[in-house]
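User: I'll paste a sequence; please echo it back and then give the predicted structure.

Assistant: Echoing your sequence first, then the prediction.
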Amino acid sequence: SGFVREDYVFPVRQLDEPRQRAECAVSLVEEAEALLLLEWRALYSIYYVAHVEQGRTGLVIYEALPYPTRELTRTVLEDIDARLQAGEAVYTDNMHPALNRRYRLERVNGECNDYTLFRVSLRG
């Protein structure tokens, strides 16, 4: 399988690598409620750590580029717009061109370096 050879969280070289990255990602989000727009590679480990282990069910997690579209859909962009206009927090783990054109993306700094998140905000 081609995807097994990719360099991402799985397959792991260290058994605790997916957990470390997921815990790092969740720790970078201070808000109790936020939208996280994530790549599929680490989405499930982050979801598990946030919802099951930490009870942070206010973190809504979307796959950024769902198959078969492999692009940010219009409905996701509309949801991001609505959430940002309502003052809600939105994060992404990738600087997608569609996001860069519409929003300002600022890297979130925290105590861990195992995962990169960007805070999404309206331009202006």
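The longest helix spans residues 40-53. The first strand starts at residue 34 and ends at 38.
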